[in-house]
Hints:
heterotrimer; A: Rossmann fold; Rossmann fold; 2 domains; 5-stranded parallel sheet; 17% strand; B: two-stranded antiparallel sheet
Amino acid sequence: MKKATGLFILMGLLVMGCGNRASAPGVSEDKILIGNVQDLSGPMKELGAVLPAGSNLYFRYVNENGGVHGRQIEMKVEDHQYNPQKAVAAAKKLIEKDQVFCLYQVIGTSPCEAIRPILAESGTPLVAPATQSGSMSDMSREAADLIFHTDTGYDIQTRILVDNILSDNVNAKIGLIYQDDDYGENVLKGAAVAEANTGIPIQKEAYQRGATDFAGQVANLMKGGATHVIIAGVVKEPIIVMKTAAAMGFGPKFYGTSPTMDHRISLAAGPAGEGFTSANFASLWNSDAESAVLYRDLCTKYEVPKAYMGMYHFYGFITAQVLVEGLKRAGQYPTRERLVNGLETLKDWDGGAYPPITYSQNDHAGTKSVILVQVKEGVQTVITDWVE
Amino acid sequence: MEIFIGLIQESISGIALGSIYALIALGFTLIYKATEVVNFAQGELMMVGAYINFYFVTTFLAQSGEPTIGVFFLAFAGSIIFSFVFGWVLDWVINRPLKDEPIFSVIMATISLSIILRALVAIIAGPMSLIPYSPFGNRVLSLNGIIISALDLSIIFSAIVLVTIFYYFFNKTKWGIAMQATSEDPVAAQLMGIPVKRVYGLVWIFSALVATISGILLAPRMSLLDTSMGFLGLKAFPAAVLGGFGSIAGAIVGGIIMGVIETISMGTLSFHFKWIKEMNDIIVWIVLIAVLMVKPDGLFGEEKVKKV
Amino acid sequence: MKGRYEDENLSWIPLLIIGIFLIPFMLKEITFSYKYYLFVLNMAGIYIILTVGLDLLSGYTGLISLGHSSFLAIGAYTSAILVDQIGVPFILSLVISPLVVGVFGFLIGFPALRITGMYLGLTTMGFGFIVKRLIIALRVWTQGAGGLEVSPPMIFGYTFNSDWDNYFLIFTFAIIAVIVGRRIGKSKIGRAFMAIRDSEQAAEATGVHLAKYKMLAFFISGLFAGFAGALFAHTSHFISTDHFDILLSIYFIIMILVGGVSSIYGAVLGTLFIVLLDFLFVPELKDLIHRVLNIEGGDIQSLLFGLIMFLFIIFQPTGLYGMWIKIKIYWKLFPFNPKKRLI
């Protein structure tokens, strides 16, 4: 009995943290606190390990060089397991309990959509949500004025991929495997546009987020005679789809939307992944782009394990650059409003890896073009220039 | 005619999948047969087995450099030895502290065990998914245009072998009959001189053994290995219940039926009837509930007469 | 206040109710993060309504339900569709949604007449999976797996827009739910439930109509869960099928187990304990471990949760309510406490 009472009191004490009231939430004399919500233990936890690490790499570099206007950047990461409801709880914790200055890099289309009401209610900006859904820059949605998207949307990507397929083979039979949620919805939007433009029907197969068995969808595509298949998945899905297809003796040309950019996909898929073409919203991490060079130098300097280095790690890096630029433009005494205004002054800003980024009061989309990257002999090779 | 060939192809693939369900179901059934406990952590036991095997293979591969039969065999042996130890530890952890508690508490304990195991493996192994090794490479056998992989054949073979061994054990050997006695009435069994505690311990070791073998066989069939593998254990429940919990023959029959139904529904049925596509992952549960409504104790279940 | 029994002292109840309504004000004084704590308490309040019903079903009647999160889901989606797509006022939806879920309860209660024990548990588990899939399949109304935005609760023109407002709404109903649950538990119905749990044959022999009471148990627990679901949908502003999974169903069972089965107060204590554990205590512990040992990752949270669960089952199987009773008896008998344990 005593143990129980003691336990409850201990719980209570541990939990009542003292809040630091600052001028703007999350900003103190020497620190800015940023909030991030990732999938740390759910279906996409590999990204949760690598993505914030990339951002922290850049933050470390910035902090060691004096920070932003003398303030060190600190990032707190919560876990939502790719569950939109848990994302809401995590966002509330970061905003209301930990009092972060802004949210950053929240991953997943559905989780980002789910937290819009909290962003609006608390006036918290969300910079660089880690999703390429075009809905993120849809200005008619709630809290759109607070969200700054950096990546080109799936709908645009899908259209570009279809155009590329048709330029490869005018008589292609196109198949599409997509995730049955907000991500897929945005992809389907692009597919509908492509179908309307070209008059060519696309065979669509859905899968549930987190699924690991694609035998059904692949078999259906095979029966439908698809010659070119677009995989709108993340990391696990393209690997499993290509391997399953290979096991079934089905060999179409595979394409992917930007989340499938990671080189580990071709690594894991092995020979089945040869020729895989994906759209990417930024330059490759091993290219000559300015940010990529800086990235590799820092990885060597800070002894980042090789397994981490790759597109997603780099993605964290380059979005951190955008955030830091916004923080710089927010001035010596940053407030949330100043951050928003600061970001909206970005015009054709070249961060060193993204195509030029432009924000304005009515346009928070950032970029509108992608490059296509193909796996040739196991190595990712850029095959086109920036396409709109 | 093409549909017919497709159905046969899917049936064979379904039998392989069903054999995996059967093996997992066998694990459930063993524990239930002896202790009346439903082990919700069975899927996670399988996952642990798969990870341990992966660890052994990687270690031995690093030493020998070449993926030879020897490497896989040694890894297999290592995993089996591990499963013996693991099963013994599990018995110690689950049965000793909870020996007088109602069955419900023990079942909840297995549920928390599954949560713990999943989290532990994720922490130790790290967040990256693993790429499993297949000891049979990509070899396939082809008969009249019907393809079956060497891996699937070995799965079916192992399932049949294991089920036969355990069936024989439970029905024809002294220890096996002792175990059945213990499950029916532990007090009477003890009075008759059966070392009940040792029986419990043994049955958990068997279960861990079967789980590990299922894990080793299943891993190459999945393109990626990660901790969510344990959820397949949940899917094997309908298989076990379908055959009748507590019946070894039922486990394999239930498993195979479920595997075939699932594969055919995902393949031919989905292609011709679009609405079935929506139901693929729950078809096993629908079948289960339908069967239970007609035969509440499963296909082979023995009707339990409850003591007043 | 007079209770049913002469020596039952119920005067603490009004005090408790006043205390519950004072909590938001107290929290606001103590900490800046009060909004977040209210959010957590709101979650607990909604779940309490559900677990009261679950306790009546699984604790009192012994019918194990491993699919109760699906009842919550049906209530949530039903209410969301009724209010946002059909235009039913929220208050009316609070009446209709529980009834809808109650009907689903009947549907699942039907197999329960013949299927028993663990088989029933598995059937309810299957039911949970099937409902989840069904919700996704009915995407015309439910937006499929993407999730549905839900409007906030609106009663007589007043919109409950914040966690502060929601607290009062939720806990009013939570208190009512507990009172109703307790009344049912102590009534003839409750006794019939317990008789069925202890021995179906004996119950039948004493005139308890098995089918009627089993169906009633499922219906009542459906009502509670549906009500909770409606509140959940509108106070969360967003629902998706990810949330209503088997893990949540298991959480609910853990709540009534930890609290102590077949004592409605146990369900309350258990729910509070688990929710506070999951949202507040374990994350703090995780941060502590991260600072001290530098181990990271969301899996630590699951691990800690699982461990605490396990330890609880081993060391305190009578649950929190059992502990509370022991404390009460200790004080009642003081200073004549016997050396040996009475329970």
